[in-house]
Amino acid sequence: MLRDISAHIAKQYDDMMSIDNVKWCLTVPAMWTDQAKGQMREAALEAGLIHELDSPRLLLILEPEAAAVFSKTKGPAFQFKEGEIFMVVDAGGGTVDLTVHKMTIKDGEDALEEVCRGLGGTCGGTFVDASFREWVCDKLTPEQVDKAERERPKDMQSLYTAWDNAKKEVGREDTDDVYIPIPVGIYKSLPQEVQFRLEEEQDGYDTDLVLTDEDAKEIFEPTVQRIIALIRQMDARVQDEIRASVDTMLL
């Protein structure tokens, strides 16, 4: 992918500048080790972004650090005061990454100072999706879900897309039960006992998966608790290292 990006930029701006004059800023998860960052540099070198492994034209920045810079420069809703300490919680698909910065003044201009080492964990949105799949297995049986994923991947993708849309709405106080349609091909392939059980458990509905508020909480809860634990761990680290508390949190 890095090679494709490099080739695209070289093609688009060939008449305006040399690719060798480009400074690359690549974001990486806060939990990455120095070894992982080194592998990213090697990938950038192999892709032709840089010509030397330690080239100053490649800057690796932590994902939540990039969010912090954006909030300071492009986010008018977040006008931090000098000395204010804020935590960025970058909840992505695979990882959740946290950094803590303090607003300072350097050479008469606003600047961000990293308060302590970043923290991250593998508890992003894909883990919520994995919990949803387990819930579907409880409804349709693991055997039927495995079979549908093998034989009807497009239908299963349709079901997962419906979940992807639904999960943005669940959990609100005014949210009713969410009905996720079972694709026709999958429904017809279900054994009768599974269809009957759906009808019995869902008050007569057997062609939809009925997601209640309680179901949604059970799906989200394991991942949410892991994120909360990360936030508490980071907050404790700040208090231990600089004897201060976080003033603001950006999600």
Q: Layout of SSEs?
A:
Blueprint: H1 2-12, E1 24-28, H2 34-47, E2 58-62, H3 63-74, E3 85-91, E4 96-106, E5 109-121, H4 125-140, H5 142-151, H6 153-166, E6 178-181, H7 184-189, H8 192-201, E7 208-211, H9 213-242, E8 248-250
Parallel strand pairs: 1-2, 3-8
Antiparallel strand pairs: 3-4, 4-5, 6-7
Helix pairs in contact: 1-2, 4-5, 4-9, 5-6
Question: What do you see in this structure?
Answer:
It comes from Kipferlia bialata. GO terms for molecular function: ATP binding; ATP-dependent protein folding chaperone. It is a single chain. This protein is of the alpha/beta class and 251 residues long. 49% of the residues lie in helices and 21% in strands. A 4-stranded mixed β-sheet has the order 5-4-3-8. The chain has a two-stranded parallel sheet with strand order 1-2. The protein is globular and about 70 Å long. It starts with a helix and ends with a strand.
Provide keyphrases for this structure:
251 residues, alpha/beta, 4-stranded mixed sheet, 9 helices, globular
Short description:
This is Heat shock protein 70 family protein. This protein has 251 residues and is α/β, with parallel strands linked by helices.
